[in-house]
Predict the structure.
Amino acid sequence: MHMADALLSPTVGTSFIAVSGSLVVYSAHRLARQPDERRVPLMGVFGAFVFAAQMINFTIPGTGSSGHLGGGMLLAMLLGPYAAFLVIASVLVVQSLFFLDGGVLALGTNIFNLGVWPCFLGLLIYRAVAGRRPHRWHGRLAREGSHGQDAHATPLRLWLATLVAVVASLELGALSVVLQTLLSRRSDLPFGRFAALMMGIHLPIALVEGAITATVVQYVWALRPTLFGAGQMHEQAAGSASARRETLVPVLISFLATTILLACVVAWFASPRPDGLEWSLAAVQEGRSATESSPLPLLERVQRKIALMPDYEFRRAADNESRGAGQTESGGESWPNVRVGTSLAGLLGAALTFVLICLVAAVLYWFRRHRGKSSA
Amino acid sequence: MTGHSAQMLDRLGYGETLIHRLDPRAKTLATLAFILTVVSFPKYSVAPLVPFAIYPLVFVILGQIPASVILKRTAAVSPFAVLVGIFNPLLDTAPMVRVAGVDVSGGWISFISILLRFTLTVSAALALIATTSFPRICQGLDALRVPRAFIVQMLFLYRYLFVLIEEAVRLKRARDLRRFGQRTGLRPRVAAALIGVLFLRTYERAERIYLAMCARGFDGHVRLARRLHFARTDLAFLVFSVAGCLALRVVPVVHWLGRLGESLL
């Protein structure tokens, strides 16, 4: 399940479209610098492969639920970071349009969550743990020309490298979803609980995906050892030192962006505020004892409770604007004094609008049939 | 995620109605503007979102999209939004409005808002793909200066999507035939082997495709046909859609209608 448009705000949506869009442009640029005509059909078909591979469901041991391969890490290992990123982005576009999995505005966030982490960070982690040229030491054969580098890249180490890389990518992807939902402020889910839930759920998924990716790579390596050199061949040809420097730039950029983002979020929440769930439970308990009386004392009590929070001012202003534009007749009154008034105007308006829309639909149907008759 | 519904959506895109003939750039930009406007509403907006249903409705009716497609696909992808949204009524319990003597909490209002947003945005995306074939969408994106490498990638993906899905279906069927009715699901190791086989077959297919392309004169540059003409109807559609979205966003039409209704009663 990818991020839906319904949970996004326009700011978050468009900023992530900008980020992912510029990364797509950058990746296309980098690929154009090292043209390889064999890559065109390879990338295309492997994009389709992702869909096909995701149809092969398996049961996750221990939980009994079924899962499927994400495929990001596998692509990155095969094609290198830039090509894999483009493939994943294209897969997400098709998923969004044909399978409606993930919104159109949310494409920016989805491409970031599912593409940036495995292709740029995951691959870096994999290479760091497994050694610079890990494909040379898959299996028992050491290729000729080994310069004594990473002679200890055993199959176990490669397995571990894949696992760590996949877990890091998926966990960061899950965290990104939480942050995007949080920043959009459409959902009331508190950061701590939501993050713990999302990252907790994705841990067994990531472990299984890492294991399966590693197994697939071993399987493929046993049959066609040369495959996984394809993505990295050009970087080796271009000279290892400069290639290493060049590949770091986009990674550094995404690191920086993430750090800034996390810093803002942490600063926002670094307050002695009770856990969101406990706070709302307390509010509910207080509210139950006061349902007979008017709602004002309840609201006052709740207001007193959250007055200790440093972001109270910001929150009140935001909720003010949102509640004012909602259905209450009392318009833009300040939050503690919101009158729980009737919403007759809103309901009636919605009902009348619905009737109007039905009329419009009827007109459109007539128009369509009329046009069909006249053109026949 | 079945291949069949995707194939049906794909086929729908090749229709010949008024909506189908609109320029893909106009439709894509209008859909994007629509989605942006819908998600720009504040958290607790419900009534103002209702008139926006007109946009996907126009596509569905004039584009001759069967209603069952919309309903089924929307329902199929709703779990994520519903699961996240359902916590709002649980967490935000301060009453916000009074309906027929019953206090409704802010949480329920924001949840209904999320559901409305979800239905609207998904229908808009569905309306787009069901009235525009994917190659035409890619043509439109190419004309909008999206990187050529990315467009080519999407076109190739589209071309081989259904082929590879069928390949996976064959693999699954072969395995199912050898399971002797076992109820337990696929073990991860077996799945990994299947995926590995699929991987190798895909790679070899890619090599065959490359050779076939070379045999037909491929020189590394993929050339795309440019057959898009931005007519006055397309411009009118785009301007009207965007202006409509902005107007509905800013002008409280529903509220006015409600006041009107109130005064009549």
Q: What stands out?
A: The longest strand of chain A covers residues 58-59.
